[in-house]
Amino acid sequence: MSSRRSRSRQSGGSRITDDQINDLVSKLQQVLPELRNRRSDKVSAARVLQETCNYIRNLHKEADDLSDRLSELLETTDGTSAQAEIIRSLLTQ
Amino acid sequence: MASMSFNFEENVDRSRELKRRKRRKIETVNQDRAKNNQIRWRSIAEQQTYSSKLVEALRHVRQTSAASNVSSRSRAIRETADKVLAISARGRTKWSRAILTNRLKLRLKNHKKANAKPRMASPGNRRSNNPPNGVQKKRLPALERRTRVLRRLVPGSRKLSLPNLLEEATDYISALEMQVRAMASVAEHLTGASNLAESSNRLGMSLEHTPQR
């Protein structure tokens, strides 16, 4: 008993419970477009982690593609002050 | 009469109960904080703040970069977008702090490399992720495999505990989604602006006279 107490104090008072992990996994599931409509007791934690990795990779790829597109767009517009003003006004709508 | 007996067992139980309550309170506070962060990443205001910071940073990058080819320009834009995203997180998450410190470390390393003599790559220098078994690939259980891959994808998460890793991943995903929405919207507006500039040039009009909303 005393050993468990000293261990939990060393780890900052956080004993990791299964419930805690399950709760975080289901929260993660809610963020994933592929899995958020499925019941959390039907989706395994490994599946959630797999979908998480896939989704993050997809988002990275989208960001890379958008960077390509932005680099093309920034080359062609010559960044005059008038255009910057347009952009600013469009962004603050 | 209230007993003033300092019963050792009672004190031990009481302090354990206090610790338990404090831990539960900290967990609730953490959960609320995570929920608030997720709401923040999804808000229009946050996206607009990010978009304008991004545009500002991109303009600065264009002025200072001597990049000649498309891929390095695109890489510079992606890195800028990541850096501004990390700044938007206001130091609340490990992934955002890791992005910013990695940038600094890389710059210091490149600076050192430029000044130092080249070193031969030796087995002792390579930091290997392989298990001690070496050549033979051990088939880890699915959860461990996926966790390992996730740690590679979420910046700064290699040494985090599993609960912290899951929290970081959830926040990182919400932030990435906002980044993609913002970059797409900036690209749309740049496309519109360049079309507008093009057609007004053709028509011989000056943009200053375009009526503003």
UniProtKB/TrEMBL annotation, chain A:
InterPro entries for the chain: bHLH_dom (IPR011598), HLH_DNA-bd_sf (IPR036638), PRE (IPR044293)
Entry GO terms, CC: nucleus
Pfam families per record: bHLH_ILI
Domain of life: Eukaryota
Cellular compartments annotated: Nucleus
Keywords for the protein's UniProt record, in alphabetical order: Growth regulation, Nucleus, Transcription, Transcription regulation
Listed GO biological process terms: regulation of DNA-templated transcription; regulation of growth
UniProt-listed SUPFAM superfamilies: HLH, helix-loop-helix DNA-binding domain
CDD domains on file: bHLH_AtPRE_like
Positions of the BHLH domain: 5-59
Gene Ontology MF annotations: protein dimerization activity
Designated name of the protein: BHLH domain-containing protein
Gene source species: Nepenthes gracilis (Slender pitcher plant)
Automatic annotation (TrEMBL), chain B:
Low complexity bias: start-end ranges: 122-134
Superkingdom of source: Eukaryota
Keywords: Nucleus, Transcription, Transcription regulation
Residues of the BHLH domain: 127-176
Annotated spans, Disordered: 112-141
Source organism of the structure: Nepenthes gracilis
Protein name: BHLH domain-containing protein
A Pfam family of this chain: IBH1_N
Primary location group: nucleus
GO BP: any one term: regulation of DNA-templated transcription
Chain coiled-coil ranges: none
GO molecular function: protein dimerization activity
GO CC, alphabetical: nucleus
Keyword Transcription (UniProt): yes
Membrane-spanning residues: none
InterPro entries (alphabetical): bHLH_dom (IPR011598), HLH_DNA-bd_sf (IPR036638), IBH1-like (IPR044660), IBH1_N (IPR059002)
Subcellular location field: Nucleus
